[in-house]
Amino acid sequence: MVLFRNSPGILAIALVAILPLTACKREAKLPAESATTAAPAQTIPLDIWTEFSGQRALDNVRAQVEFGPRPAGSPELARARAQIVVTLQACGWNTEAQEFTAPTPNGPIPMVNIIGRFPLERGNKAGSSTQKIIVASHYDTKFFRTIAFLGANDGASSTGALLELARVLALDPNLAAKVELVFFDGEEAIQQFTETDGLYGSRYYSTQLRETGRAAQFKCGLVWDMIGDKDLTITLPQDSPKELTMAILASAEKLQCKKAFRIFDRPILDDHVPLNQIARIPSLDVIDFEYPPWHTADDTLDKLSAASLQIIGSVTLHYLKQNF
Ligand SMILES: [Zn+2]
């Protein structure tokens, strides 16, 4: 993610060895025994947003961080991806590994977006036509030659929280079936953000949505990024879709946490931009750009709080339940 006026300028060199992506299978089937981990349909919670646990989300964040730096194409990212897939499947989501090769300034790099879809009927394969909204995070971290960049907030926070969102949504299958969860690879620029460096996963995914005609089924999209800072101030980009912004702020107001949100004074370049511009799906970047450790070795777990993740998870669930 980067401001339009201000690109980070650290050069990356060739990425480390690339492992075959054996951990991910296309349209992996839900293991039968995992169906028992989700609650039966008759216990659908009325106030589903109260089910989100900031602490569970933070535990997921820690698990991602413990893989170490996770740049696109690295074996560490393959391990992080495998954990995302296993966690999704364990609470009833079907997963698709959307594989592609990204042309980068350092040559072609294999990348994989993970897409989660929820079946309306337990034990059945999820269809691809019930989804009305995308909720997304990037799970790669920016590669730095000179520092071990762990990306606790920038990469892991939104990824861990999205896995907790998956667990909670599974309590309400009808709602879950309307949500497409997407974990983007290659959000970070390999060298520095340009038209062709960065946002690889979201550009590929958005192009696929447009070319297959699936884009038309989506009402909107939410991108989470850097949502774990203890001092949480969500800086919604100035050029955000108005109706969606108002609806999210209404949910924040209802849950008495509107003070954690404000409108930023500039546009921000992040994974919502391809969704808006390529797929033409009105999409909002839920991001806290006021984070001093951004793209430094200090982006570590101690800067985050469960309470911040709780706010974003709860507001999003409230918004989903009220609008879908
Ligand atoms: Zn970043």
CATH architecture annotation name: 3-Layer(aba) Sandwich
Q: Assembly state here? A: single chain
Percent range for β-strand residues: 15-25%
- CATH topology term: Aminopeptidase
- Strand order within the widest beta sheet: 2-3-5-4-6-10
- Distance between the ends: 28 Å
Q: What is the count of DSSP helices, taking H or I runs of 4+ residues?
A: 8
- Rounded to an integer in angstroms, the radius of gyration calculated over CA atoms is 18 Å
Q: What name goes with the CATH superfamily?
A: Zn peptidases
Query: What summary fits the major beta sheet?
Result: 6 strands, mixed
Give the distinct bound molecules.
zinc ion
Explain what the structure shows:
The chain is of the alpha/beta class and 324 residues long. The protein has a single domain (2-29, 45-323), classed as 3-Layer(aba) Sandwich (Aminopeptidase), CATH 3.40.630. The chain has eight helices and ten strands. The chain has helices spanning 54-65, 75-90, 152-169, 173-176, 200-212, 242-254, 272-277, 306-323, and strands at 2-3, 94-104, 107-117, 133-138, 179-184, 220-225, 234-236, 261-263, 268-269, 283-287. The strands form three sheets. Strands 2-3-5-4-6-10 form a six-stranded mixed sheet, with helices on both faces. A hairpin with a 2-residue loop joins strand 2 and strand 3. Helix 6 (242-254) packs across helix 8 (306-323). The longest helix has 18 residues, at 152-169. The protein starts with a strand and ends with a helix. 50% of the residues are buried. Mean pLDDT is 90; it is low at 4-39. Residues 1, 142, 154, 188, 295 line the site of zinc ion.
